[in-house]
Amino acid sequence: MYHFFVTQEQIGSDSILIKGSDVNHIKNVLRMKTGEEILISNGVDKDYLCKITSISSDEVEAEILSIDEEGTELPVKLYLFQGLPKSDKMELIIQKAVELGVYQVIPVQTKRCVVKLDKKKEETKLKRWNAVAESAAKQSKRIIIPEVKGVMSFKEAMEYAKEFHITVIPYEHAKGMAETKEILGSVTPGKSVGIFIGPEGGFEDSEVDHAVSSGAKPVTLGKRILRTETAGLAILSVLMFQLEK
């Protein structure tokens, strides 16, 4: 079933109006017809099962058949702080993180990042990254579209995460798996969790020291060295499995 997002203003008592680029997608790309069912989310807390009742050049109207307030969201807010990777790896990371339940993705400029973005390039990348997040949210039937924030320095990212209940940072010199399991096991419904992942080459020791002094907990991801595009997804997968209802 195809999935779309609308604002609260587009939702009536018994019907929803879809406007903008989704109208062309429904009409000319998907070639949908009246009577077909679609899923619509308000981007906050509700899913609506709807039936298309009319299609015009600038809007699609759909009758509300049922409302789901339980949705598909995890009972925690997971924030992925991703050191800027090379190539197009960020798009893959965002796509899979959204599928796994991330609440927000924050690109981070660390000391070992090879990628350097000026303001113009960052704006272009952010537009693309948020489009990837929206597409992944539709595909995975999320109620919300996780936001990809603007690029932060490591110091800015640590400041952003200081109010979270738990912040973790994978580090090759972290203690054994037992302590990591205990830390991740302490993530319970209602908590906010910051997950810091380094770029290719990982974090410098000074960055890890800064993170730990700021309250972050070093964790291990096992005996194997994971690539930057794998590490964050590994933690998100563990937390998703642990917290899924």
SSE blueprint:
Blueprint: E1 3-5, E2 15-19, H1 21-29, E3 37-41, E4 47-55, E5 59-68, E6 77-83, H2 89-99, E7 104-109, H3 119-139, E8 147-148, E9 152-153, H4 154-160, E10 166-170, H5 177-185, E11 192-197, H6 205-213, E12 217-219, H7 228-243
Parallel strand pairs: 1-3, 6-7, 6-11, 7-8, 7-9, 10-11, 10-12
Antiparallel strand pairs: 2-5, 3-4, 4-5
Helix pairs in contact: 2-3, 2-7
Description:
With 245 residues, this protein is α/β, with parallel strands linked by helices. It folds into two domains: 3-68, Hypothetical PUA domain-like, domain 1 (Ribosomal Protein L25, Chain P, Beta Barrel), CATH 2.40.240; 77-243, SPOUT methyltransferase, trefoil knot domain (Alpha/beta knot), CATH 3.40.1280.10. The chain contains seven helices and twelve strands. It has helices spanning 21-29, 89-99, 119-139, 154-160, 177-185, 205-213, 228-243; strands at 3-5, 15-19, 37-41, 47-55, 59-68, 77-83, 104-109, 147-148, 152-153, 166-170, 192-197, 217-219. Strands 6, 7, 8, 9, 10, 11 and 12 form a seven-stranded parallel beta sheet that branches. A five-stranded mixed beta sheet has the order 1-3-4-5-2. Strand 7 (104-109), helix 3 (119-139) and strand 8 form a beta-alpha-beta unit. Helix 2 packs parallel to helix 3 (119-139) and helix 2 runs parallel beside helix 7 (228-243). The chain is elongated, with a radius of gyration of 20 Å. The model has no long low-confidence stretch (mean pLDDT 93).
